[in-house]
């Protein structure tokens, strides 16, 4: 909610401001390992990708880290990961039947074939939290908002009482991930509705002006509601706003805080999800 | 209550010792006292000089225009002068106490006969006061302004040692201080947020303002509660001679001011209003979504005064202003309200007293949701800050050598950091942050003492105390700033007390009547601060008090200056150097959560700061050419253990080089041109030095805190004013002002964003956001005067 009304200020300022590209000379820093991946309680192959940081204006795809040895541990059992294209992809996969168990804490161990930022060993841990059941969703068109109207995807669910819960939301359109970059992922905590039934709160706004992104009657829309840790919730929020500096409400820029050891960047997340679908009318 | 005892003792010593020591010297003295006013409208003149030629001494009128000079029996020539007014000279035979009321009239540049007496005074050289700058509203009105909106705060930002925190912002940093370290007083009431429309305009309507004085250091002991500066603003009292109507029509706003006597020379009032109408254009917009938006602000100032005989005067003044913004998704309102009731009493010809009750209020409200009844995420959010205070201030003009000032003040702060709750069919619960209550008290005494012909010493002490009052729940924090427990206090308990002694000392060495050397030291304490870590500031201000977890901020400043006047005081020059140490300054953890947070104190990171600089000023008061040219070199650094690996870093307002040229030239009686040019080093800033990619988004790996800078800021503004023909007896006058902001269309950086290309997501680039290109504007002002 905080961010939502702060956008109001942004809008007011945007009316008066102009933007232009500039050339900047930026310095370099040493290379760090970047970890991006998650596991869920669903039985499927889960992926972890390893890359390296680069100069800010390098303008090349992130360099991959290949031939690393990765394994997951839940404290009792160890599950190895294998590189999807050995020596090439830098993406490491669990067994296709792997499923996390709610309540367990998973630790990812990474052993690199090369030294990055002074070490070859990295770890990250995340607790897998159970999620509430998603009752249903609705897609509603509002013609009075925006130039060509917007689609609102509304959520119906019970927020479990008793604790601060952190939610992540992903959207699928005809079974294809719509929220395909982290900036489109929805996040919210329950600070303002703790323990309440949510009778159709807006989870996504889809701008009808963009014909590639918008919904059409007959589309199947699926919402994935996930319960995540506070650390992952904060991480997503920080990544979404990283690089954007709105003087009205941005504090001083700061590095995104992940959960990778030894100055590694990124996040290894574990979470569980609940799904609901509807047909757009 | 040992601390109280100590202070009473101190005041007693000053009060008793000085008159005694003085009695030894001269047995027979009398007092000249009275009031200096404007002959046209009866307004009191603040800071007029009363100079006794024979004694080479004098006095300065206080904020009510009152003055007092005590001299041995004799015959004297008394010269009364005030900037922009014709000087009056009187011969007085002092064999008894004399009351001398003086009415000064505005100097008419075009009338030859008064030119002789238009010699400037050299108060700036001979007063034991440094690091201050006084501006009358007429000077401010000649400065070219954004959208033609004359603005006191924007004028202040052109002074040496004062920095705007960002383009277009009403926030300012004085000698490296934070924007929340400025005490902004409107008729003695604290103005907590001086911004309209996100800072593009300030809350002060120039039509209702009489004069403005900024203290950058050498802060008199009468003021306390803020570390860096005092901006003391006084409203007009209202014309006590005749009806006067002033108004203006601009691109952004219109103003109207009415002032008149209710009882001639005894009781008068002023009412002034202003409203912007930028949003009136919105329905014309082709963008459907914009048509129903609201975006405006308004202001109301009012003041009434009543004189009971010669010894008593009562003032009641108030300000109320609101900003309103509304679109389909949300609405916001914010604003200040202040009220001051003052009683000004002359106990004797030597002892003046002022008693005031002040109220100050800042609040904001946010309405979220699409406005439909079925919106389940509709909410309303309210936050406020209230001050209720009383003050007593006394001036005792003991003799020609000593002027003693003392007083007492108490302010009760009521802080509601925020309550958010759902409205209509909303699912939102009520979230309420614990209120804070605190009592801030001050006691002070100071003396200004002439030591022979060359030296004047000024010394004073302020004792300040800050007490947290229950009900409250105070959290304890562990080394990682996580809560480790809490203590609850009952309503009405004074559960925590801080106090501090704030010495203020100044020395003047008058080399001759054209040049002087001044030195000062002042300590200031600050107990209330703003939880705001954005560069520009938002209306969503949360002030939080010193507490068991938050120590008061303390500043020690030393300054040394040389002052020299040229050409019959029409050119004033000065050079001041200063160094300032600040303890317990506040910064915030990365990604601090400041709103609706019960454990706000856990977001603070406390350290120290220091600043230093040199300010060079040439101020011109020629007949046709007025204004100033200044250069400032200044640095400010912070060091906080948990920030930037404990290494010191430039504070956000560290802009080493600053130039301001503010000039106006009167070409003829009816034509005035003004220009200002400002230059400053760019703001310090943290830049990316690497990048990482997560989930398709490339984000920066950052440098050390504030290791880089924006490009330098510079800008030229011009304006021209045409005046209607002036003839005696003419009731109506007008002027037309045309101004251009940012004449050479410089794209000054407001922020830099690092963005990812939409087509090729591997490409990142830097984008400069700038606010104002070249902006022309026109304002029409009118003036009606019932002669």
Description:
- The complex is a heterodimer of chains A (281) and B (787).
- Chain A has 281 residues and is mainly beta.
- Chain A folds into 2 domains: 33-127, Sandwich (Immunoglobulin-like), CATH 2.60.40; 130-279, Immunoglobulin-like (Sandwich), CATH 2.60.40.
- Chain A contains 2 helices and 16 strands.
- The radius of gyration of chain A is 20 Å and the shape is globular.
- The two termini of chain A are 29 Å apart.
- With 787 residues, chain B is mainly β.
- Chain B has 2 domains: 2-121, Carboxypeptidase-like, regulatory domain (Immunoglobulin-like, Sandwich), CATH 2.60.40; 132-305 and 325-377 and 406-785, Beta Barrel (Maltoporin, Chain A).
- The chains are: A mainly beta (281), B mainly beta (787).
- The interface between A and B is large, with 83 and 83 residues.
| Oligomeric composition of the shown chains | heterodimer
Provide the succession of SSEs of chain A: HEEEEEEEEEEEEEEEHE
CATH architecture of the largest domain in chain A: Sandwich
Looking at CATH, which topology of the largest domain in chain A would you report? Immunoglobulin-like
Span of the ends, CA to CA of chain A: 29 Å
How far from one another are the termini of chain B? 58 Å
Percentage of residues assigned to helices of chain A: under 10%
The average pLDDT of chain A is 90
Q: Based on DSSP secondary structure assignment, what is the total number of beta strands of chain B?
A: 51
Biggest pleated sheet of chain A: 12 strands, mixed
